[in-house]
Amino acid sequence: MKKSELMKIIREEVEVVLTNAEAFEMFDIDPAALLDEMVQEAWEGDPEIEQTGEYADKTTEELCSMKKKLMDKESRTEEEQKKVRQINFAIRSKQKGPKFGKVDC
To answer: How far apart are CA 93 and CA 89, in angstroms?
Structure first.
């Protein structure tokens, strides 16, 4: 076996792990800043998604009206309460900004 073949095998088998300081020293890059930049690029803006849900064809006003009818009842069955939660989810998905917390109705 030639020395070059042996070196190739060794290179393939050895895993190199560098600290941030070593990476900066060797490659003149800041891994933390690079990672932050990559994450920021990945999460800019609201994602474009295809509406496929049960309430995709309903407007926010229609959903709020459906919710109000259910909420105005004296008491709701477990199935009706489940429907309220589903409507809340649909409303949140249609509102701008954060998709959690209070429902805008």
So the answer is: 6
